Task: structure prediction
Amino acid sequence: MSKALVATQASEAPASGASGARQFWRRLRAQRAAMVAAGTVALLVLVALAAPLLTALEGQDPTTYHSALVDSARGGVPIGSLSGISSDHWLGVEPQTGRDLFARLVHGARVSLGVALAATTVQVVLGVVVGVTAALGNRWVDQLLSRATDIIVAMPLIIMALALLAVVPSGFPRPVLVSLIIGFVAWGTIGKIARAATLSLKNLDHVAAARLSGWSTWRIARRELLPGLAAPVITYAALMVPSNIAIEASLSFLGVGVKPPTPSWGQMLTSANVWYQAAPQYLLLPAGALFVTVLALTVLSDGVRTALDPRAASRLRVGTGRRQEAQANAVAETAKTNAVQEAGS
Amino acid sequence: MSLVQVTDLTVEFGDLRAVDGLTFELERGAALALVGESGSGKSTVASALLGLHRGTGAGVGGSIEVAGTDVQRASDEELRRLRGAKAAMVFQDPLSSLDPYYAIGDQIAEVHRVHTGGSRRAARARAVEVLDRVGIPDAARRSRYRPHEFSGGMRQRALIAMALACEPQLLIADEPTTALDVTVQAQILDLLHTLREETGMGLLLVTHDVGVAAESVDEVLVMRHGRMVEQGPVTTVLGTPAQPYTRELLSAVPRIGAVRTPSGATDEVVLEAAGLRRAFGRGKRAFTAVDDVSLTVRRGETLGVVGESGSGKTTLGRMLVGLLEPTAGEVRYCGHPRIGVDPAVQMVFQDPVSSLNPRRSVGESIADPLRARGERDERRIRGRVTELMERVGLDGAHYHRYPHEFSGGQRQRVGIARALAADPRVIVCDEPVSALDVTTQAQVVALLGELQRELGLALVFVAHDLAVVRQVSDRIAVMRGGRIVETGPADEVYDRPGDPYTRQLLAAVPTLDPEAAARRRTDRRKLALT
Amino acid sequence: MSGFAGFALRRTVGAVITLLAISVIVYIVFYVTPGNVAHITCGPRCSPEQVHQVARQLRLDDPLYVRYWHFLEGIFVGQDYSTGTSVGHCSAPCLGLSYQTDQQVTQIILAKLPVSLSLVIGAMVLWLLLGVGTGVLSAWRRGRFTERALTGLTLAGISTPVFVIGLVLMIVVCGQLELLPFPEYVPFTDDPEQWAWNLVLPWLTLALAEAAYFARLTRASMLETLAEDHVRTFRAYGVGERSIVGRHALRGALAPVIALNANDLGSSVGGAVLIETLFGLPGIGQELVHAVTVVDLPVVVGMVLVIGFFVVLANAAADVLYALADRRVVLT
Amino acid sequence: GPKDNDANGSGGDSTPHKGGTLTVLNSAPQSNFDPARLYTSGGGNVPSLVFRTLTTRNRENGAAGTKVVPDLATDTGRPDKNATVWTYTLKTGLKYEDGTPITSADIKYGIERSFAPELSGGAPYLRDWLVGAADYQGPYKDKKGLSAIETPDDRTIVFHLDKPEGEFPYLATQTQFAPVPKDKDTGTRYEQHPISSGPYKVVKNENDGEHLVLERNTHWSAATDAERKAYPDTIDVKSGLDSSVINQRLSASQGTDAAAVTTDTNLGPAELAKVTGDKELASRVGTGHFGYTNYVAFNPKVKPFDNPKVRQAISYAVDRSSVINAAGGSALAEAATTFLPNQKSFGFTGYDLFPAGATGNAAKAKELLKEAGYPNGLTVTLTHNNAQNFRTSPEIATAVQDALKKAGITVKLQGLEDNNYSDTVYNVKTEPGFFLSAWGADWPSGGPFLAPIFDGRQIVKDGANFNTAQLDATSVNEEIDAINKLTDLDAAAGRWGALDEKIGAQALTVPLFHPVYKRLVGKGIRNVVISDWTGVLDISQVAVK
Ligand SMILES: Nc1ncnc2c1ncn2[C@@H]1O[C@H](COP(=O)(O)OP(=O)(O)OP(=O)(O)O)[C@@H](O)[C@H]1O
Ligand SMILES: Nc1ncnc2c1ncn2[C@@H]1O[C@H](COP(=O)(O)OP(=O)(O)OP(=O)(O)O)[C@@H](O)[C@H]1O
Ligand SMILES: [Mg+2]
Ligand SMILES: [Mg+2]
Result:
């Protein structure tokens, strides 16, 4: 009988057998806000990637000066209402230079999002590796790595970034360098979060069970610990993206960031700061873009968190293919009852 | 009007109907037990009585009336007034059901104040009073302790005290003793009994342990798959069951007197512990959980380890499988000293909640040892996992379900399946069946025996249920305070206990016969007085 | 109490090691930083010989390890220096003299520290209130208007650089509405009321920049504690949501917040730098950035160490607080 | 050309009165307050309230303010016929803040101090001009003193120079010429409380010059000082403020800010856009011109800038209007076609040798490039400073980059950090071929403008070199020497102008613009005087009542 059961279930299996990744998507899709946010993030990334195309469509580029479009006698404020919006310049022009704001905004997205995402990736990878290794390693490893984390946390980030950026020869591709440096000097908090979370996770019995299964420490870390770490790390990482954009801005402001004339949102914000009364658009555009990015990332990170947690399925009212399963159940139940009754009699 | 009136109750979690058309009532002052196998929907019913499913996404149908409140239609405020004041719930797990940050007295006082609006002082006084009432010695001082400073039994008492704080008409106790060892269990059940006698409150006892039900209630409702199987006075249902399922249930209950069919024990020693000691903490905080324990486990035999909570059973088990480094002494596997883990020595964990990764499907968890051994063929893995799940009484089609979708007992079976997947030679089972209903328990015990015979498995069976232990064990070790106080062949230990502590343990084992239970209750009182 | 003494000792040793390591790193990094210190110090039109003399004066010709040794010596035994007309003494712990201004670094720090501490501590109170408050609301009252508004505010705070927020606030609040004075640092000891009034805007600006982290973190850990069993217990006993959230869930959720706060003190220095610059508060951050741009190594090292010291201190304090809040925790 | 300033204080009774407190809102603190270490002519505004010097600048509006006039001395100096020996006599009744008399020996001591390595920072002229001064180490190490300065009596001081210097009276305006009483000298600590010889003394100096409070020096007598008006009783200098905050505060003019000025913060382009639309605010803006030129520098030792045609092509291609916009627009910058600033005192001649018009002459540039052998354009690297100074900063560099694009020249930018930038650019060994630079006047004359940049003997091999073109032409060197002999400064100015045009023909630099200073003053400020010497309002003239 048991053989027959196995056979029926094997044939049922594909129906109910949604793999982990598929279920994750199902749970993510069930959250409308998260999907809107994901769409927004995707759109932003798309805009960044397609920046040259978009600006070609507009017929502008981000570096050409248009002296005639600004009022030189009044400090270079754009001529015309709304920073000189026109069919040529969709979002108006930049004060002083007359460069096209739309072009600068979409090209700026490349640098800002690129640097921020790359730096965040470096921070998360480094932080998680160090944190998890410290938590799983012996006393000495833990001491060493925890001290290193302390040092990173205790050192003022901007200062180290400034100093390090000055040391590297200027030939090195700037955006890459900026991402790497931000990544390498600001992983401390993620490291601490990862270590603390690992410490509490590693005492759970399921980790012990995985050890008994014969898995290597590495595999245990990957399969049993990382998914548990994901929630706190993702929450924090979503906030690190804007803070990395801000760091890039500060570095640009201090003259060591991404080089002009390459635009970045951070740079735009920095120089637009004083223009907020005379040419509000100049400030509001990058600020708005950044706000949308942050909002989308935050909502998305929430959604991902929720979707990562299988327990959320019922709250989200996502089926896991239960109907078929329930039918299979019913078959099995009758079979079992019969068997029990047979045994009893 | 009766105290509880439930009509045609259904509870649905998504597609799953956990409770299906249940109708019952409970008179004032009466006691009803909901018994049934794990996952049959007992806890779900208990929660429904207090309206705890509200806002969780579960769909509740039918009508529920508790102490004059229509739970289904009551406003949030009315529900709030019901909870704790007229009907109070004692939860299954005393470890996590109290707030770790506040003194126990304050927590009880808070509940009291919420419902009576009295002064802080009065509430504190009441807290001390109820703590005293449930038998916490030196209650005034202990009321300032935080939960972690209480033992498991004391915590359970504290929870009961909290329930008593507002003198409710109905006490709902959801598996109040599952996490406790037999001696404490007996104390708690006795306490519930006395309280009921004295205050005249109604009791709804949720349990999968028929013995526990027999000891404490007048009426029994047997549940299965969310439906009622049989209901009636306890003597009738347990004495002359009408339904085959109930009969099956009763026949599966392990009896302390039952004699075990001898296993195929050999003389070949597979696992050996010599002078094991384990201390936690340093300096003043140092605490020796296991002290100078030596034992041997032979191929094909089962060694039962019994002892009260905190006596060091789990710690010993973890050292045996290599999850914990001994402070002194060594563990030898097949004659060779062994450090670290080895898939050939497996463990079934005590806590079914934390022993499964909530983010991985159970099938994947069970497949772990297979994959770790290098198995790559997905079909073979699926086949083997399904087979293992079947063997422990799970549905093989549940491969992709997550732990939270299983009841406590089902999760424990997953744990066993996972241990088996490693083709071990020794399994340390840490309370493997304490969360299981008797039928499953019987199946699992039978399964373990079968596997043992088939594979020559050696088992270390840690449990607080002496009846079960007797059923499976060839030899017994009795632990107390980290030491083994008595060891010997099972029959000898049970029939001629040498140590007074062992005698105490034996007296606490619940029995199926309500009359016998009453007798033993008086015996225990005498034992406690002397 | 011996447990606490042990904890204090271990932490002190750890802190000293951390700070020494930091000073070594800063020394090395600034050693390889381009920029001729002697030339900057001497002035733009100095002759090569003058530059040389200045370099000798500042011991810039010594090898790195000798300079570092001299620095350590200053910390532990103090240091004598020439003012030209007399010999000055910088007593231990001496962090050396500024290359640029010849002032003792310890004195510069002592003069500027109260400003930075006033700024950061005040802002910290605000960001904790704002952040934790928003976090609690958003875990508890998901989707309500106040929750959305507060969350939006904190996210706007994190996505707008502080110098933008600060300037806009200042122009509107001080310039147009005239509600507050243009911030100007007044020492607490001179006039506590003026001290507070002048710092309101800087506090608010810095708090807005930081609050989002705390809001998100509080929210996450609130959601976690709200799902715990003991919360369920109190629900089942008819305890009101307010008390459940405020007493039972929040307390458990605070531990990670405290820890983050301690870590964040270090990174909030970045925000503090910009705020000090914008509002003209003569604090450490402003001085530090200036010192970096002119490669004034003693000032940089001294200030980085002071900041590091406070971060380490805050971390230790967080652990103590944590242990006080949750008695199960043992200080290690 | 320069216009007169248009800020006249508020209406009504605009005659200045004594009394009140003047607030100064600055961004940079007065961290150098030692007369030996100050560089700027007269040490800038605030120090000139405390330090009197042998001569000083004429405190008048516009071009009249470029004159040098006596201060402690009775006249601007009496040269011998070669202009190598200069003699000064002190006025009578001069006293320090403690009432002790000022002697010529104190002036000598003040100058000697400035040679001490501990007190470095001043201008190089004393070291270059005084006999035997090159190796002098200052009075702390070298007790003998400088023999080039003689003080035959308490009121007379005589300077012996290596070579004729007709502009010595200008040099004597520098704070190194302020008296320092030897017994009050505290070395590097002197700056905490410099002893005043001027109308105000330091009563508070917090955080190394971050907050200064100056009060009347009762021992100063207006009878000995024709220049400083000293109307306010107290001067409160607050610094460390962000420039936009300073402008915001001045425009709001609330409370004490009504009686506030700034001595170091210009209106930025964005603020200007706002101010020009507001009559009341516009009436409070003071405009000034300081001798300053921003330019592109070539290093002809580096290819392709060795080719004059390439340099000329770039000169033609430059779009000055976009550069000016980047610098803040026509109100803040005036197009420069000459290296000398556009002021008479410098000898300005107004030539335009490579006319590029307002927006650049790309066609002419292409033509020249073709002649130079680059028919398909070329790629060059422009080095600039990363600091946000609107002089050598990225904005200017990108404007140049954009302009040259039209002429087929692809410009790559290399930005360096501030201190690295000066180290790299002003060093013969590391100097790039094409970079942004700027030069300001030490005093309003062509001498300190042309000589450091084009005098071949001022090429410094192993230190800061400002002759970035590394020009060493005998004719130029000789003409510089000849002009330096003149003690008739007007005649000298004419010849500086002619020399400028002559050097300009070589296209070693591309002058870009001369900055214009626009500064706000508070509502209650009177008697705003802005000379062309400093280009900013003179706080010794300001009244708040
Ligand atoms: N939140 C939930 N979401 C989905 N399914 C649930 C949930 N809670 C319980 N279930 C399912 O409902 C059924 C009944 O669960 P319940 O906890 O009431 O069982 P029980 O009788 O108390 O079992 P045990 O004795 O093991 O505690 C089980 O099949 C369980 O898997
Ligand atoms: N990691 C640990 N740190 C400190 N003390 C511990 C630790 N693990 C166990 N203990 C202590 O050791 C003692 C024995 O614990 P153990 O878990 O082995 O008991 P047990 O017999 O399994 O009890 P139960 O029946 O309740 O599971 C207990 O007092 C416990 O508090
Ligand atoms: Mg249950
Ligand atoms: Mg145990």
Q: What stands out?
A: The radius of gyration of chain B is 23 Å. Chain B touches chain A through 58 residues (CB under 8 Å).
